[in-house]
Structure formats: structure tokens, C-alpha cells
């Protein structure tokens, strides 16, 4: 079956019949064109794509859009290969950089502008069209190996693109065993927040939230599945232990400074006489309450004996809670969460320091310790 039958927004470079023939011969090893005829055929295919890209970019320019920029960058890479089709390093560079641009810029968001979404789709389809041409020179196994290697080695802020990885997986352009081992390793037992959240989203996406599909996912990604399962089990155990130690729904703070600091946090965020922080117009309703709940929970958790013994497990528990509340759903939400946490902690410190200004000298150190109690917890969460 053909990996890719038509480039949406660009003309196909070869016919479906030729594509079917090409897929029947993917068992061949990578062979750069040698004869003049082979060079001419490859160059024609590349120039055909370049021409269509140029026409479309001129017709619908969107220079500030990342996908538009990615399409232009891949177009330049194709031009380099068309100028020197026998250069193997140019081919490898085309693969590596194209994967990087796809991971960086392919995002389909329902809230995005229609033109931005269209260019994201064009970037995806251009990438698949490039792969289609490359399969005249590579076996599918070799191409997927090189693409997987590019994913493994790409910079971390590009790597965790669920939509792009799904596209590659759907078209058999990822070696699942290699990617599974890499993802499980990078997750590091949940200490890598981005990798862990990516794995959770990835499993939900490819499993369509259908429990019946989990055996198939487990078979394809056994190492990642095992990591997530262990973390889920550990989270359940930690919650049981915390509830048993507390004896109630409220966290049992292992510090005499705990309750006053918690009271100050509540007073700073809800008490009378303190002006509320100025909220941006785009703030999600209820976001302030979510942030307060998370911050209070963390302040209570990070000083417990369990958290002192296993800080990574405590942090993972909070990451799950933050994810459940939706504060990690995007860069904007994360920035908003950090800003609001900072404002709340500053309010707590200011209220306590005002108390310190009128308190006897003997109580001054206690007040400052209460400030540090809240601020240190915040720093640990952000570290």
C-alpha cells in the first residue's frame, strides 16, 4: 500500500501506479542515482515539488507562521538535493532537517486561524511527499530507521509533538521498538515531566481512549507502557499512604510552621483587605482556584516524610494533579500558572512581613521562617 497517495495543496510528483510499483521494490538498499536517466528522473521529481511549493507560497504567504517557514526551509533543502542529487550527505541532511521542521511546526489546533491550520497540513503533506520521493532511493526500513534516529537526536523542545509523531507512526515511518526504548529511558521514572505527559497523551491519541486497544499499544510500546503502569501504581500507593498518615482529607504537615503558612496563603488569596492580583483578560474562569488548590496541596505535600524520602515521587504526584487540572495543556497555561503561583507567594510573604514589622523581636525569626516555608516549597515545585 502506498504510504502517501496525494499531497494536499501540491500536485503529486508521480502517479499512483508508479507509487505502487515503487512500494513493491522497497526491499532494495539505498542507492543514489547513477545513470544520467536516474539523475534526470530524481531531479524532475524534486523540481516538480519545488515549483508547486513556490506557487503556493506566493499565492498564500504567511511569513510569521512556523509551518509556512518550515515549508520554505524544506523547499530549500530540496533545491540543494536537486542541484547535487548524487551527494549522500545532502540526502541525509534533507531527512534530518525535514523531520526537525515537522516536529517543530506541525500543530493542528482548532482555535488557530484557518490559514495557519492549512499551512500546518501543507507542511505535513510536503514532508510525506518528500518521503515518497526518497523511497525511490531508500528501503522503507532504512528510511524509517533514519527518521527515528532524527527523532531521538532532535532538540528536546521539538521532540514532544504528539500530532507529528502520530503522522509518522501512521505512515510506518517510525521504528516503534527504538522509539519505545528511547521514550521509556527519557521519562526517567516520571522525573521528566514533558516526556511523561507526552507518553500519556500519545497513548490516549493512538488508543482513541479505548481500553480495548491497550493490548495492542502494550505490544507496540512495552517499555513505555510498563513505565506508565508503574507510575500509576506508585501514585495510588502514595495517595493511600498519605491519607492513612493524615487520618483525614487535609494534609498533615510535618512542620510546626505548616498551618500558619497555609493560613497565610488562604488569607492572601481570599481574605479581605488585600487587593486581588490583576488578572489578564484571557484568563480561564476558575484558573485562580485551580492554582490555589495545586499550590496548597504542594506546600502540604513537599514537607511530609514521604516527600523528604522520595522527592521525585512527590513531584510526579503533583505533575499528575496539575495535568488533571489542565494547567499543563500549553505554554500559555504553564506561563499563567507560574505567574499566578508567584503572585500568591509574594502576597503571602508581604502579609507575613507586614506582621513582622509590628511583631516583637523575639517573634521576628519565626515570621521569616514562615515566609521561607511557602517560598521554599514554591522554588522546589519550579525547580
UniProtKB/TrEMBL annotation:
<dbReference type="GO" id="GO:0000932">
    <property type="term" value="C:P-body"/>
</dbReference>
<feature type="domain" description="CCR4-NOT transcription complex subunit 1-like NOT1 connector">
    <location>
        <begin position="56"/>
        <end position="235"/>
    </location>
</feature>
<dbReference type="Pfam" id="PF25097">
    <property type="entry name" value="ARM_Cnot1"/>
</dbReference>
<dbReference type="InterPro" id="IPR040398">
    <property type="entry name" value="Not1"/>
</dbReference>
<dbReference type="GO" id="GO:0060090">
    <property type="term" value="F:molecular adaptor activity"/>
</dbReference>
<dbReference type="InterPro" id="IPR055454">
    <property type="entry name" value="CNOT1-like_NOT1_connector"/>
</dbReference>
<dbReference type="GO" id="GO:0017148">
    <property type="term" value="P:negative regulation of translation"/>
</dbReference>
<protein>
    <recommendedName>
        <fullName>CCR4-NOT transcription complex subunit 1-like NOT1 connector domain-containing protein</fullName>
    </recommendedName>
</protein>
<dbReference type="GO" id="GO:0000288">
    <property type="term" value="P:nuclear-transcribed mRNA catabolic process, deadenylation-dependent decay"/>
</dbReference>
<dbReference type="GO" id="GO:0030015">
    <property type="term" value="C:CCR4-NOT core complex"/>
</dbReference>
Amino acid at each position: 500500500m502506498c504510504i502517501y497517495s496525494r499531497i494536499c495543496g501540491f500536485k503529486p510528483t508521480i502517479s499512483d501506479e508508479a507509487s505502487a510499483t515503487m512500494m513493491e521494490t522497497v526491499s532494495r538498499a539505498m542507492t543514489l542515482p547513477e545513470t544520467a536517466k536516474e539523475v534526470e528522473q530524481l531531479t524532475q521529481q524534486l523540481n516538480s515539488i519545488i515549483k508547486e511549493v513556490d506557487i503556493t507560497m506566493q499565492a498564500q504567504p504567511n511569513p510569521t507562521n512556523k509551518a509556512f517557514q518550515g515549508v520554505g526551509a524544506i523547499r530549500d533543502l530540496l533545491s540543494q538535493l536537486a542541484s547535487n542529487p548524487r551527494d549522500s550527505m545532502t540526502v541525509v541532511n534533507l531527512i534530518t532537517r525535514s523531520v526537525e521542521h515537522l516536529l517543530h511546526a506541525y500543530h493542528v489546533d482548532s482555535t488557530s486561524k484557518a490559514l495557519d491550520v492549512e499551512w500546518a497540513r501543507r507542511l505535513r503533506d510536503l514532508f510525506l511527499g518528500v518521503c515518497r520521493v526518497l523511497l525511490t532511493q531508500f528501503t522503507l526500513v532504512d528510511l524509517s530507521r533514519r527518521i527515528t534516529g532524527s527523532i531521538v537526536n532532535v532538540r528536546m523542545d521539538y521532540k514532544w509533538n504528539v500530532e507529528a509523531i502520530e503522522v509518522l507512526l501512521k505512515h510506518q515511518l517510525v521504528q516503534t521498538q527504538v522509539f519505545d526504548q528511547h521514550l521509556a529511558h527519557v521519562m526517567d521514572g516520571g522525573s521528566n515531566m514533558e516526556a511523561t505527559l507526552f507518553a500519556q497523551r500519545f497513548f490516549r491519541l493512538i488508543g482513541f481512549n479505548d481500553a480495548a486497544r491497550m493490548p495492542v499499544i502494550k505490544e507496540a510500546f512495552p517499555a513505555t507502557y510498563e513505565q506508565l503502569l508503574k507510575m500509576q501504581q506508585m501514585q495510588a500507593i502514595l495517595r493511600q499512604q498519605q491519607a492513612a498518615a493524615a487520618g483525614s482529607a487535609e494534609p498533615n504537615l510535618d512542620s510546626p510552621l505548616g498551618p500558619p503558612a497555609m493560613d497565610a496563603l488562604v488569607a492572601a488569596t481570599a481574605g479581605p483587605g488585600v487587593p486581588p492580583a490583576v488578572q489578564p483578560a484571557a484568563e480561564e474562569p476558575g484558573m485562580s482556584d485551580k492554582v490555589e488548590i495545586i499550590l496548597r496541596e504542594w506546600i502540604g505535600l513537599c514537607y511530609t516524610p514521604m516527600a523528604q524520602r522520595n522527592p521525585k515521587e512527590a513531584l510526579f504526584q503533583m505533575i499528575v494533579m496539575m495535568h488533571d487540572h489542565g494547567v499543563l495543556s500549553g505554554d500559555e497555561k504553564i506561563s499563567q500558572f507560574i505567574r499566578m503561583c508567584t503572585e500568591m507567594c509574594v502576597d503571602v510573604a508581604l502579609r507575613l512581613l507586614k506582621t513582622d514589622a509590628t511583631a516583637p523581636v523575639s517573634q521576628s525569626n519565626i515570621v521569616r521562617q514562615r515566609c521561607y516555608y511557602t517560598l521554599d516549597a514554591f522554588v522546589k515545585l519550579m525547580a
